[in-house]
Write a structure and sequence with these properties.
CATH class: Mainly Beta
Number of helices: 1
Strand content: over 45%
Structural class: mainly beta
Distance between the termini: 76 Å
CATH topology: Immunoglobulin-like
Radius of gyration: 18 Å
Number of strands: 11
Number of domains: 1
CATH superfamily: PCu(A)C copper chaperone
Order of helices and strands: HEEEEEEEEEEE
Helix content: under 10%
Length: 155
Amino acid sequence: MRNVFSPVVSLVLLISCVFANAGVASEGTAVLVENGYARESIPGTSISSAYMAISNLSAKNIKLVAASSSISDRIEIHEHTMSDGLMRMRQRDYVDILAKNTVIFQPSGFHLMMFELKQPLKAKEYIVITLHFDDKSSIDVSYTIKGLKRKKHHH
């Protein structure tokens, strides 16, 4: 007799992982992605950036090596660093995510740069970016688009 509950339980777990921005990247490698958001596009530009916290729940080190999405054919891993009193941004080939550790992607630190966006990113919408790891695993993550901060004018 076939167990019909297995596919149902698997589907429920998969849906839970998608809505929690969490998932199993590969056999034995558990990755949790939280607080994912991207910046609204500045009018007239075709770039944006994305941020998140990536937790490696497994006992082995992993590397984030790439990101991809239907919204852009070119997404790069970048890092801001201070050098001689100047903030510099440079592309990274990968980011180490040590076992049982979390790496924060935030403004003035690690981030994903999206170039040549196929459409403007608008506040309160969502995009999906696939994160790719060095063990050939990947995870789809939903990012909320946050609006541009506007300065308040005092008269």
